[in-house]
Write a structure and sequence with these properties.
Helix content is 20%, strand content 20%. It contains 16 helices and 31 strands. An eight-stranded parallel beta barrel has the order 12-13-16-19-20-21-22-23. Strands 24-25-26-31-28-29 form a six-stranded antiparallel sheet, covered by helices on one side. Helix 9 crosses helix 10 and helix 13 runs parallel beside helix 15.
């Protein structure tokens, strides 16, 4: 087989129209063997002839897209020093842009002998491992343009590619659960009608299904087990795995953009699917283990594990940083995605032991002219010591605000001494984000996410029920901050069910009226349940898949959610770009925000310290918006009064004096079923200054000053 010297860059397999250049980094390798596979799985091998700066490279003419390939790396086998080269193991290209197949769990996929772990396995792994695939990069994007939705106008919908569409009745059966299904006109139309502006997809990087799950008949449904950072997961392709997954994903993004919806990817750059020292050898472990992974100081056989998965990527090595940055740029430039949510992002900042906010990774993000222009979201924690870093990420970043989730849950389940922190979370968490120049939209506000209870389960269960996961209910968090409203799980009690519905409306109203960026878990608006499973990572079945019949049965709740989103988008007072100041504005005695007691007077310092207080009215001044519009025009909005009563009994509120507003109009009342609320465009009940209004126990009332 004729092979030319080729080039050391770009890394990966690059087709130029005539042939393909192959380039692989390995500082450890003594020889790199490129293996090509035909349709019958027959292997042909050739050594990469050149090594430049630890990049092994070569060019093969007439090798075209669709060709399957892998590597065998010849080098030292020295487990005690973290060196695991074994040429009997076929390895995925870390830069592969498509991957065919999955792992067929056999002893051959492990680099060592089970009976003698210090000895290399001499069994060929090729029959049991996936293949890298050469891809044609061409795609007709036509006039695709990113929506570039400003952060303060963003509404995020967290979803799973398969789970969102696997049971959708209007999607062709052969496409359900795929990229094409997510781009189906009926699915896109629903998202558009709901009003979300961005869909945040759980991992679509190529991932594998863990051996222990497969043995139990389960699968790695969530996908937080990446093995290919450039390759769209092949199980989500409808038409093939030899590059079709790339075309289908691009079609998905193009379709979403045409509807004005951004695509954000949940990415897992903190670890790979190769596990710990006893895990499989699939890619980086056999290419250059000490370069790619954090090893234990003084015990190089074992891995540092900040993620709870067995390994952590070595963010101190320049080639690992390059891998991640190249991957991010690829997904922006070639796949046109609009942003990233970084799983366990604190792990990416660990240069030594402590989490370093100014680590090399964040420096690279800051200066990169492509990546620094897209949406960047951190899951601001990992499982290591000191890993909880909410509020500590650099100015370009937004964060999943776990404190918002916990505080709002505590408030609505009636926990004492939550009012002051609830007020802070409702107004954008300035205590977390203001100190380094960030804005309210640095806070991604969420109440539920893929990891934990659904919204319906949050009000239906006190504890987790994860028996289906096969771990005797030991997995999943016990810190749910949930309240079942009087019965565990499903019940026929009409009063309990009515209370649960009201609590769901309370949570949704709080979420979409809060300053910051709201994130809605897909299906929460339909009342979907996982039957108390708060860790459905392995449930690739109807436990996790959305039941679209619920969207019909609970149409009123779906419509309630849609109207809340529309209300937020219509009124900039709910999505300010700057934090409240709390002081008078333009000569008025009224500040941009005021805190009002149930008796109609303003809160005092002593009131905030009352641990039993569970009720408050919040005045939002629509005449005190500090930021101009896109052309410098002044923005003026209606003023609102939000009345929260987390107490279990009805509470009488006195509306403030006429100095605040002479009249108020009821916009929503969560104590009423949503189909009883005034329709859009209709006038709600009118109230006068000083009127007394009864707020039902555990409810929210929103009043608007008529224009």
């Amino acid at each position: 087989m004729e092979i030319w010297p080729g080039r050391p860059n770009p890394l990966g397999a690059a087709f130029d129209g005539s042939g393909t250049n192959f380039a692989l980094f390995s500082e450890l390798a003594e020889r790199v063997e490129l293996c090509l596979f035909d349709d019958d799985g027959v292997q042909a091998s050739v050594d990469l002839p050149e090594s430049t700066g630890f990049v092994w490279h070569g060019y093969l003419p007439a090798i075209v897209p669709g060709q399957r390939y892998g590597y065998r790396v010849h080098g030292p086998w020295d487990p005690a020093n973290g060196k695991w080269c074994n040429p009997k193991k076929l390895l995925l290209d870390p830069y592969a842009t498509a991957i065919e197949g999955g792992v067929n769990w056999d002893a051959a996929v492990f680099g060592y002998q089970f009976d003698h772990p210090d000895q290399p396995s001499d069994t060929d792994s090729a029959p049991f491992t996936p293949r890298s695939v050469i891809v044609n990069p061409w795609f007709d994007w036509e006039n695709d343009r990113p929506p570039n939705t400003p952060w303060h106008e963003t509404v995020v919908y967290e979803a799973h590619v398969k789970g969102l569409t696997a049971r959708h009745p209007d999607v062709p059966a052969e496409q359900r659960g795929t990229y094409l299904a997510l781009a189906d006109p009926d699915v896109v139309a629903y998202l558009k009608r709901l009003g979300v502006t961005a869909i945040e997809l759980q991992p679509v990087h190529q991932f594998i299904h863990d051996n222990h799950l497969v043995e139990q008949g389960l699968r790695n449904y969530w996908g937080y087990n990446s093995i290919g950072y450039f390759a769209p997961h092949n199980d989500y392709a409808a038409r093939g795995q030899r590059g079709e997954q790339v075309q289908e994903f691009k079609h998905l993004v193009k379709t979403m953009h045409a509807a004005g919806i951004e695509v954000i990817l949940d990415v897992v750059y903190n670890h790979t699917a190769e596990g710990n020292h006893l895990g499989p050898m699939l890619s980086c472990k056999g290419i250059d283990n000490p370069a790619y992974y954090r090893l234990m100081p003084g015990d190089l056989r074992h891995y540092m594990d900040y993620t709870g998965t067995g390994n952590s990527l070595n963010m101190r090595h320049p080639s690992v940083l390059q891998l991640i940055m190249d991957s991010l740029r690829y997904w922006v430039k070639e796949m046109h995605v609009d942003g990233f949510r970084f799983d366990l992002a604190a792990a990416l900042a660990r240069e030594l032991h402590d989490v370093d906010r100014l680590s090399a990774f964040f420096d690279l993000i800051q200066q990169d002219p492509i990546v620094n222009k897209v949406k960047l979201i951190a899951e601001p924690w990992d499982v290591g010591e000191g890993g909880y870093q909410v509020g500590n990420f650099p100015p370009l970043w937004t964060e999943w605000n776990g404190k918002y989730r916990d505080t709002v849950r505590d408030f609505w389940r009636g926990e004492p001494a939550t009012l002051e922190e609830f007020a802070s979370r409702f107004t954008g968490s300035s205590d977390l984000y203001k100190h380094n120049g960030r804005r309210p939209y640095a806070s991604i506000n969420f109440l539920t996410a893929h990891d934990g209870f659904t919204l319906r389960d949050l009000v239906s269960y006190n504890g987790k029920h994860n028996e289906a996961n096969g771990e005797s209910n030991r997995d999943g968090t016990d810190d749910n901050r949930a309240w079942n409203c009087g019965a565990e799980g499903d019940t026929g009690d009409p009063e309990i069910n009515a209370l649960r519905q009201r609590q769901m409306r309370n949570f949704l109203a709080t979420l979409f009226l809060s300053q910051g960026v709201p994130m809605l878990l897909a299906g929460d608006e339909s009342g979907r349940t996982q039957h108390g499973n708060n860790n459905a990572y392995c449930q690739d079945n109807e436990i996790s898949w959305l039941d679209w019949d619920l969207f019909v049965a609970n149409e009123a709740m779906v419509e309630f959610t849609r109207r809340l989103i529309a209300l937020r988008q219509e009124h900039p007072v709910f999505r300010r770009r700057r934090f409240f100041q709390g002081r008078s504005y333009r000569g008025s005695h009224k500040g941009d925000i005021s805190w009002i007691r149930p008796d109609g007077t303003e809160m005092t310092d002593e009131d905030w310290q009352a641990g039993f207080a569970k009720s408050i009215a919040i005045y939002l001044n629509g005449d005190a918006l500090p930021d101009p519009g896109p052309r410098g025009e002044r923005i003026v909005d209606d003023s609102f009064l939000v009345l929260f009563n987390a107490w279990h009994e009805t509470l009488e509120f006195r509306l403030p004096d006429a100095d605040w507003a002479e009249q108020w109009e009821v916009v929503l009342d969560t104590s009423n079923p949503p189909d009883l609320a005034p329709a859009e465009g209709e006038q709600g009940d009118r109230l006068k200054a000083g009127d007394r209004i009864e707020i039902a126990g555990r409810s929210v009332v929103l009043l608007r000053e008529p224009g």
